[in-house]
Amino acid sequence: MNATVVDDAITSRMSARAFTGQPVARADLEAILQVASRAPSGTNCQPWKVYVLQGASRSTLVNKVCAAHDAIRANPGLAAEYQEEYDYYPGQWVSPYIDRRRENGWGLYGLLGIGKADKDKMHAQHQRNFRFFDAPVGLMFTVDKVMGRGSLVDYGAFLQNIMVAARGRGLHTCPQAAWNGFAKIILPHIGAGEGEMLVCGMSLGYADMQAPVNSFHTPRVPVAEFTRWLD
Length: 231
Description:
Blueprint: H1 3-11, H2 26-36, E1 49-53, H3 55-74, H4 97-111, H5 119-127, E2 137-144, H6 150-167, E3 172-176, H7 183-190, E4 196-205, H8 223-226
Antiparallel strand pairs: 1-2, 2-4, 3-4
Helix pairs in contact: 2-6, 3-7
């Protein structure tokens, strides 16, 4: 096995935020999902369920969620109707996590020329999430609510496999927790069962590498900062 090839697929992965309209072959999507299914899971439960949106199903969902997103902006009180089923982010931020979050957010907005007072531009950029950043393929991931929190750990391995397998085929992705608050719209649209919970969404396609937003690359702290060696 060539470690460089694997490492390159991992390190070249990024959260692409602009895609071309070039379609992705179904055979490639099926191959990516088949490879990703080799992710480990507790007692081999394989808790993932995947919904692939393309064409009309994708466009209709985009329109529904963008309309809800706009409605919340016009009437913030509506936000109470759209709640995530699990806490992706902490209720109270502390350092160093809040510092990294701010660096990420303002680094991205700064690149796009969006200032703190540019509410219209901020709203439009956030809504790009709900347009799958123009990617032709949208993925929605669910898990049965009866499963424990450990299944979300399993899910992380599965999602990473999808992103790395996509890179091996010249594709890019953007994993998106932004969709989670709109589960009440998404789950009926994709035909999910009553016992399913939305884990996240993902954009997948060929990245538009000419788009300035795709020049944004997030930093990583060095190994020494998050590792203790115990002899």
